[in-house]
Amino acid sequence: MGFMENVIKIKGGQELSGEVTISGSKNATVALIPAAVLAHGPVTIVGVPSISDVDSLSAILADLNVEVIKKAKDHIIIDPTNIKNVSLDTPAVTKLRASYYFMGALLGRYGEVKIKMPGGCYLGPRPIDLHLKGFEALGADVKYEQGCYLIKAKKLVGAKIFLDISSVGATINIMMAAVYAQGRTIIENAAKEPEIIDVATLLNKMGAKVRGAGTNVITIDGVDKLMGCFHEIIPDRIEAGTYIILAAAVAKKITVKNIIPQHLEALLSKLEEMGVKMEVGIDSIVIEKSKKLNPIDIKASPYPGFATDLQQPLTSLLTKCDGESSIIDTIYPERFKHCIELQRMGANIEIGHGKSIIKGSNDLFGDVVEATDLRCGASLVIAGLMASGTTEIHGTLHIDRGYEDIDGKLKALGAIIWRENL
Ligand code: EPU
Questions:
Q1: pTM of the model
Q2: Which residue CA neighbors atom 35 of ligand 1 most closely?
């Protein structure tokens, strides 16, 4: 991945076949890497996806004087032995939203952190008030000065924290801030996403006492010292979902490997309702071409509900269904920019507040479109594969933030996809 801006071009209309292997979870990785700074010894993480968000987090680790050793393509050792708690205000911090996990991790370790406002995909307003309220409940004082958060505690003490919204980021951030706090922290109405369990598993391997991750009540008993450990990241359920949706749209027969089907139940049950031909194995799924697809209604909601991150890719597939489908996003009501791009490609979509109505079926055709955020990018790649003619996708940096080697994986399935520098 160079710094040169490029576009992805796709010649659509090919029938794809073969196997694709899913990488480690992006949204787990971006929390696991900051969590590693809580350890007093090297943390080995396997299954790290090659995505630019990982590069940005590695740059932040370098600023903190944390050593990152790349042992293999997906295998890193993070050694925080010589860590220094410097202010985090470099451009890497604003490249992604997950840099905010350094708030919880550094506050947890040092009782103090100074960090610039995090960046990330614009999906409408994405406040972090619940993270900050959680830190305050643990005894921290939060100040915002000249674009930087200064969060400081004389002493962190366990507390009972009820989250008004079950936020993934706030749950993980509070968990990390609480591992060294004195006494017991209880997070109520905690988010239940599988990535939260993965972070709790890492923390527990390091010696923390986190119980209940994956349920809506998480208990953290403070400990004195965390050590290094070995951890393998769970497969990326959103990347898996993206390839499964893509297969339902353009496959003759595709096998998606390295998945945890239980993490994909909301998607798989909807695809079944649509009439997608598929066979679910223990850690893989085979999707075959289906004759006719039924329209469906989707309501994106917190896990185990239908993932907001998959409603965008799914929209492209729904243009193929005969009849009217609807999508409501209860998490990000403004996450519908992809619909405007899909309209350019011939999709008949009505966009309302927090809602889209897809009136199919429509034949899509190639055009010049813009990936305004990561999953919008995924929906455009799928649309490009479905469309007649050539699709040119701008804003590829968003796609490279979260999808490992998307060109390579699609080429291996027979797609005609290439990049051109701008
Ligand atoms: N919210 C608040 N206040 C807060 C935190 C969140 O009001 O302090 C609201 C948000 O505005 C949103 C809802 O709570 O309406 C849920 O947000 P959450 O905090 O759960 O989202 P996040 O942690 O910022 C993660 C993923 C997103 C994914 C969402 C929802 C990471 C790094 N990001 O974001 O993933 O869409 O959960 O599942 O884990 C993506 O991968 O493309 C992506 C954007």
A1: 0.97
A2: 309
